[in-house]
Amino acid sequence: MKDVKRIGLVCAMVVVMAASFGCGAQRSSGEGTAGSGQPVTAALEGVDGAAQTIAAGIVYFEYNRFDIQSQYAEVLKQKAALLKQFPSIKIRIEGNCDERGTAEYNMALGSRRARAAYDYLHRLGVKPQQMETISYGKERPAVSGSTEEAWAKNRRDDFQILAR
After folding, report:
1. Where are the alpha helices (DSSP H) in 86-140?
2. Containing H/E element for 44?
3. pTM for the full predicted model
4. Could you give the angle at the alpha carbon of 154 between the alpha carbons of 153 and 157, nearest 5°?
5. How far apart (Å, rounded) are the C-alpha atoms in residues 128 and 143?
6. Residues 99, 101, 106, 108: what is their CA dihedral angle, to the nearest 10 degrees?
7. Averaged in consecutive runs of 10 residues, what is the pLDDT profile of the chain (164 residues)?
C-alpha cells in the first residue's frame, strides 16, 4: 500500500512538472498577443488561463462616450470566444468614469459603458447568465490625478471573474 501511494505521488509530480513546462513553452512560442498584451494561447491553459485572459483585457472609452471603439473589438471577441468555450466562467463588467462630472451622472455613464460591453459580448454569442454589470462611476479610479492621461485610464470597463 505504501508503494502505491509513492507511485501515485511520483505520477502526480510528473504531471505537474510536464504541465508547467508545456505552459511555459506555449507562452514563449510567439503566437501573438491580444489587445491586453496577454498571450493568445491562454485558452490552451484551460479555464484558469481563460479566466486570466478575460480579466486582463480592459476596454477604454472616449470622454463622455460609451460606444465600443474599433480597437477594442478584438479584445471583446477574444473574451467572447473564451466565455463560449468555458461556459462555467461568469463575469462582472464594471463600468468606470473619470473624476469629471457629478456622481449621479458618472454612475449612469458607467452603467451605459458596462452595458455596451455586455451587449457586444451577447451579440457575439455569450449567454446572459454568464454576465452581470455594475457601475462604479468615478469611485474606483485606476490612476490618480487630474490630467488627460489619468482621466483616459479611468474611463474604462474592467472584467472581474465571479466563477470559473
Report:
1. 103-123
2. none
3. 0.73
4. 100
5. 31
6. -170
7. 42 35 32 44 74 97 98 97 98 98 98 98 98 98 98 98 98
Distance separating alpha carbons of residues 26 and 18, to the nearest angstrom = 12
Residue recorded with cell 512560442? 29
Amino acid at 5: K
Alpha-carbon distance of 129 to 13, in angstroms, equals 37
* Contact (CB, 8 A) for 53 and 34: yes
Count of H helices and E strands in the chain?
Answer: 5, 4
95-117: per-residue pLDDT in tens? 999 999 999 999 999 999 999 99
Determine the topology of domain 31-163 in CATH. 60s Ribosomal Protein L30; Chain: A; (3.30.1330)
Cell 490618480 identifies what position? 144
